[in-house]
Amino acid sequence: MKVQSNGMGTQSVAMYLMSSIGVLPRLDHSIFVDTGLEKPNTYKALKWLIEWSTKNNGIPLTVIKQKNLYQDLMKNKGRFASIPAFTETNGSGEVGMLKRQCTGEYKITQVNKQIKKIQGLGKFDRYNDAEVWIGISLEECQRVNSPKITNFKNVFPFCNAESTKENGVNHEMNKYFDNYGITRSEIIKWMNKMGFPDVGRSSCAFCPYMSNSEWAEVKKDPKTWKKVVELDSHIRNSTKKGVQQPIYLTDQLVPINQAYFNEAQVNAFEDCEGYCHI
């Protein structure tokens, strides 16, 4: 079984399209996990891809909404520090980040549960063999990782790499493109050539890993921005959850509605485990 973990960003949408029209092997399923408040362009990409798939015999696409990260944070459910928000480090004036837990709990685990469902297995049954295809492109191959489930193999066609829990990462497949894989800019060129839209990077609309230009883009959508501002205010005082200093969604350590976003500046943060922004 070959399953795509679909982040609904440029690389994931391109992989879906390539698989559907025969540039890449045809996958059995594509899974997108909606964490409750994705960026507006992510929902736009999802709508477009569903419409395209219906008309063009795309591979089966499943949208998962079982866990809502936004609502859980607003209701103080689960681990409060599940997003990598910013805070002052021990009152030193230096900016630090809280531990990142959201990707594993709200993305990877949900994809794995859906794979088990597709395989017709019960909650406590052992997984059957599966390949999980992930759209990391060549310039971000450092994000390639191994699956946590023994019977799984992660496949990264744009990096010409695959990995297993037991044997780690192999970067020498050379099956799908050339010896060097394919970059995001090359993927965008292919999308343009084929007449497909570039859907941009995907993520939660409140993801602290977003660049300034992405924050500025989210701010243009009043409905989404209102929810982001509400969440940013809600998480400020988290001392009851073991965090000593106020927390924020940006490294400026000010309320999000007071932050200045220089669209020319890109934040150089590491992305989430190879499942977000693709």
Automatic annotation (TrEMBL):
InterPro entries: Rossmann-like_a/b/a_fold (IPR014729). It comes from the Bacteria. The lineage of its organism: Bacteria, Pseudomonadati, Bacteroidota, Cytophagia, Cytophagales. It comes from Aureibacter tunicatorum. Gene3D superfamilies: HUPs. This is 3'-phosphoadenosine 5'-phosphosulfate sulfotransferase (PAPS reductase)/FAD synthetase.
